[in-house]
Specification:
Rossmann fold; six-stranded mixed β-sheet; 12% strand; alpha/beta; globular
Length: 234
């Protein structure tokens, strides 16, 4: 794979959200692992956040699919917060804080399984939208890279679906009868990411052919030129 994402005989953590992206990614990785010579071990993990309302997926359905169709167990980890945490209150809940809490949980899983990589299901659309968010909200030109290594820990984030459009992932899931759940998080619906995705990216895509693809490859070209020699550290 491009960017030398996965090597043989290493252990990686796949965060399974239950959405189409992570479910399709797991399907593809399981097929890829069957045909390569040097096998790698993937720990599929669903992190249930008990501090969010109506945010659980049909876990038993996903677990059954993983075990019967992909022959790999799906582990469920319950993420509990201290009683004094502000995230327990609706007012303080946000996607940013939720992602931060989930990332800390995955770091602990990496330590448990001696894994050095965490796999995300981010696709081309996600990378473009996140890059616009960095510009608009944080005033910085920073791409969500297909691969980036943390500077303080021996952990690397990889995104094997980086070159694939969201609509292609959806179509693949439907054709192959891969079960997935839509995001039903009440916080997510009003998130800035959605505004950028639908009011900026999607609207420009209507009038500019290949808007997402051209933006993505411009970002990746810049990423390669600036960071590939020393690699990308967080």
């Amino acid at each position: 794979m491009d960017f030398d994402m996965i090597k043989g005989w290493e252990t990686v953590i796949l965060w399974v959200s239950g959405w189409k992206d992570s479910m399709v990614l797991w399907y593809l990785l399981s097929q890829y692992r069957r045909i390569i010579k040097d096998k790698f071990d993937i720990k599929a993990v669903y992190i249930f956040k008990d501090f969010l309302i109506d945010c659980d997926i049909n876990f038993l359905e996903k677990q059954k699919y993983f075990e019967e169709e992909l022959w790999i167990p799906l582990e469920k980890v319950v993420l509990c917060l201290p009683k004094e945490s502000k995230l327990n209150e609706w007012l303080w809940q946000s996607c940013q804080w939720c992602a931060y809490a989930r990332r800390i949980a995955m770091f602990k899983l990496c330590e448990k399984y001696k894994a050095t990589k965490i796999i995300y299901g981010h696709h081309m659309d996600d990378i473009v939208v996140t890059s616009f968010m960095n510009m608009i909200q944080w005033r910085k030109l920073k791409v969500m890279p297909p691969k980036n290594k943390m500077s303080l820990w021996d952990i690397t984030f990889i995104r094997p679906l980086a070159y694939i459009r969201e609509k292609e992932i959806l179509r693949f899931a439907q054709i192959n009868n891969i079960p997935f759940s839509a995001c039903n998080c009440p916080v997510w619906t009003d998130w800035m990411r959605n505004k950028i995705k639908y009011e900026i990216v999607r609207e420009n895509e209507k009038i500019i052919p290949k808007f997402v693809e051209n933006t993505f490859f411009a970002l990746i070209k810049d990423f390669r030129e600036k960071y590939e020699k020393d690699w990308y550290n967080m």
